[in-house]
Amino acid sequence: MKKFLSMLLAMIMVLGVVGASAEAVTYERGDDEDIYEEVLGDFEGLMAAAEAAETIDERFVLEAQAEAYLLDSAVMIPTTTQGGAYTMTRIAYRTIPYANWGNDDDRWGTMVAANELIKKEDREVMKEAWKKAVAGEEAYDPAKILTDLGYTLANEYKTTFSTAPVTLDWLNTSSQSDTEITVQTVDGLVQYNNLGVMEPKLAESWEISEDGLTYTFHIRQDAKWYTSEGAEYAPVTANDFVAGFRHMLDAKAGLEWLVDGVVAGAGEYYGNGGAWEDVGYEAADDYTLVITLEAPTSYFMTMLTYSCFLPICEDWYLSHGGVFGVEEYAAASADTNAYTYGMNTDVASQVYCGPFLLKKLVTDSEIVCEKNPNYYDADKINMNKITWIFDAGENPTQTYKDVVDGVYAGMGLTEASGTLALAKEDGNFDKYAYVSDTTSTSYFGGLNMNRGTFALASGACASPKTEQQKIDTQTALWNKNFRKALQHAFDKGTQNATSRGEDLKYANLRNMYTHPEFVQLSEATVDQNGHEFPAGTMYGEMVQYYLDEMGCKVNVTDAIDGWYNPEAAQEYLAAAKEELGDTVAWPIQIDVVYYGPSAANTAQAQAYKQVIEKTLGTDSVIVNLIEATTTEDFYACGYRASNGEAGNFDMFYGSGWGPDYGDPNTYLNTFLGNGAGYMTKVIGLF
């Protein structure tokens, strides 16, 4: 840190000194690579060691060390996961694909739902039946359970959306708000069922070579591509998977790095101008797909449920302006008159091979998918129609009424929105409300280490900071002790209570990036320092061990506030002030953007300001709450920011990551440097 502080002092001497007039200084953004090296430099080395491990268990141990290092850096703070909220619903327990990773849990065709809200005791009956089915004790038939209990079955599902898809090209996006819609309309090679078992989908069968490098998939011959009107267009072939994979690499939309170092030649192709012929993806014939890996990869099959391995109809793609080649695609896609593939303004710009056809997409109104009666597995699809209605969260009382009246299948009940109180008043809470299961998705807050935007192009969401205050914030955030002071002052439970209510304020809190029980050791494993972890050790237990070894005051257990520690926050603040000396003027200004029309988001922002300023004191830190009045502005400041420089915030807690496959590096790789990690933009880098 001394080297970095000397760099900062040199920069401050050039740009201005504390106490100088606002006209005498100008904020300048630093160098991403230098900043990353200082705050997360050892992370990449630890990840490289994990990738080179000889066994799966050794890799898990090394990944745990890398995660501990990431958490200790305090550039990010895990906040919550999905679930852990009071909910009432008409959807039967676990009838859609069940997996801790990939896109399959967004596939809703097999959903079983009732026309009536399901009583919480009846949900428990289904939950116990599901557990017995997973254990192999009996079959799970949720439709029969519901009808035996007196419910009638629904064949349409209606929900809400606040962010519309920006593309119908499922290989040119890594945003869940896009793929939640598109995965209803396209199948992959394999798919998990509702018991968490992987089953054939477009691949009827497959073989893996003895050396673990070659995977041969046999594509079913009854799958077809259909237009949005339901007209058959072409058969699904192995060439469509090859075309999809190449298009994904060409588009470089945030999926490509997942296969770098996994599929032979992929990284060289999209990153260094390598030849496509050297990529391990080929069609041996119309219905045989062969994938060759760089090295044996134990979790490769689990990767296939993520969208980067989906097919596209090659002929349709080419006939709508599509081309192959990284540079060729960049040029062609810029011409929106000629390149019309997958435009979100026209459902007819795509063809579909999944259970649903996209029939309507109006970005601020309604999205509709209808069942394709000609789908090869149509008899397994329970929903005839899925509808999303735009809802920015501005009138939760009406949404609650709509759920009660049967317009929507269900909703979460929150304190800030008033819906929890409504349900308690009318008796629905006692009859229907249950606490939803938590998931492997992890949300987190990021501190902007290299801010490049202080207002949107329209002038909206402008920071109130002077040039000197911008410099002071940057200087303070480059100090690890200051970052730790902020993160340990963050009372996540108090913030969460604004939406979940006081009794559930800890239920969905997460304190590490990877789900703490995501993987476990199959055998006893000794690390490089001689410490032995016994067989069965959960991943989170290993991360905790290394955090303790580092003296990091974090408890990674789910459902507690494992970061909030006012005493530690004060200690770190004192250390930061000593190290920073007179290079900054206190208080440091921290900008947080929130969506004003949402009562829940507003309450969260106010709670963050309250807990930070209470713990650290307004003589040390002031949180500036900056209102976004439209969802477009709010998402542009953080979630939809194209890169680190575009992030308009100092602290942003609106991003999350759902794992793509069954290894902790599906989370951790998102923080690799030099643009390789998708989530470094949430800490203002790359």
Question: How does this model look, in words?
Answer:
This protein has 686 residues and is α+β, with helices and mostly antiparallel strands. It has three domains: 2-17 and 26-82 and 440-683, no CATH class; 86-154 and 391-435, no CATH class; 176-350, Dipeptide-binding Protein, domain 1, CATH 3.90.76.10. It is 33% helix and 16% strand. The protein is built from 22 helices and 24 strands. The chain has a four-stranded mixed β-sheet, with helices on one face. It has a four-stranded antiparallel β-sheet with strand order 8-9-13-12, with helices on one face. A hairpin with a 5-residue loop joins strand 10 and strand 11. Helix 7 crosses helix 11 (326-333) and helix 16 packs antiparallel against helix 19. It is globular. It starts with a helix and ends in an 18-residue tail after the last helix. The model is unreliable at 1-22 (pLDDT under 50).
Give the strand line-up of the largest sheet.
Answer: 5-16-15-14
**Which bin fits the share of residues in helices?**
25-40%
β-strand percent reads 15-25%
Radius of gyration: 25 Å
Q: Tell me how many strands there are.
A: 24
As an assembly, this protein is: single chain
Total domain count = 3
Number of helices: 22
Instruction: Give the integer mean of the pLDDT values.
Output: 95
Structure classification: alpha+beta
The N- and C-terminal alpha carbons lie at a distance of: 21 Å
Main beta sheet, described? 4 strands, mixed
Low-confidence stretches: 1-22
Shape: globular
